[in-house]
């Protein structure tokens, strides 16, 4: 299940972030200097949830917690950089608890967010940008049959280094052809 995170989710979210810190942070930008870590500071987490709520309100980004059927928090899936007008596009991002990796939860969550992006938000294109050496994230894109479009050089700062990213994409036309198969395979 995907749903917006709330203050009540902080204990589970913080536990996952603390336990999986070394595994996750190698793929993430450095945090802004001087800001508190939401894994250790509930007010910083509250502000993070508020930022997602504001972005959702302004149709600029959609962040969701990824939860198992029993209600356990296991990761996040988001649509960021939503662009309207002639673009009608967004970028998908995802991360998962190291202890839950490899169980197929991320591909399932990405299919859910693709369905939301194309069927509810009426976007035309969703892309993922992944560091080439991040084999598990690349496997998700490949498992879902996202089209590899090439490498963007020094696209994003990861741990203080400007890293190349392989870009994957899917359009609304492709979703209309393949979406029902992805839903049947990963959601039913």
Question: Which terms would index this structure?
Answer:
7-stranded mixed sheet, single chain, 7 strands, 30% strand, Aminopeptidase, 188 residues, alpha+beta
The CATH homologous superfamily is termed Gcn5-related N-acetyltransferase (GNAT)
* Number of beta strands: 7
Q: Tell me the strand order in the biggest sheet.
A: 1-2-3-4-5-7-6
Radius of gyration from CA coordinates: 16 Å
Assembly form of the protein = single chain
Separation of the first and last Cα atoms: 13 Å
Largest sheet: 7 strands, mixed
Q: Helicity, in percent?
A: 25-40%
Summed over residues and divided by their number, the pLDDT gives a mean of 97
Structural class: alpha+beta
Strand content: 25-35%
CATH C-level class: Alpha Beta
Shape: globular
Our count of helices gives 6
Query: Helix-strand pattern, N to C?
Result: EHHHEEEHEHEEH
Unreliable spans: none
Query: What is the fold-level CATH name, i.e. the topology?
Result: Aminopeptidase
């Amino acid at each position: 299940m995907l749903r917006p995170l709330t203050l009540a989710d902080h204990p589970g979210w913080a536990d996952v972030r603390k336990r999986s810190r070394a595994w996750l942070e190698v793929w993430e930008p450095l945090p802004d200097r001087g800001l508190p870590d939401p894994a250790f500071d509930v007010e910083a987490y509250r502000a993070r949830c508020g930022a997602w709520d504001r972005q959702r309100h302004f149709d600029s980004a959609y962040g969701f917690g990824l939860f198992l059927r029993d209600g356990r928090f296991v990761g996040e899936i988001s649509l960021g950089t939503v662009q309207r007008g002639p673009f009608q596009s967004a970028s998908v991002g995802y991360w998962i608890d190291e202890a839950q990796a490899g169980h197929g939860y991320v591909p399932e969550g990405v299919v859910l967010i693709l369905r939301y992006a194309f069927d509810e938000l009426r976007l035309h294109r969703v892309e993922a940008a992944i560091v080439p050496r991040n084999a598990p994230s690349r496997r998700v894109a490949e498992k879902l049959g996202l089209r590899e479009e090439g490498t963007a050089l020094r696209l994003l700062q990861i741990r203080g280094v400007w890293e190349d990213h392989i870009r994957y994409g899917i359009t609304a036309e492709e979703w209309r052809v393949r979406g029902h198969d992805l839903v049947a395979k990963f959601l039913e």
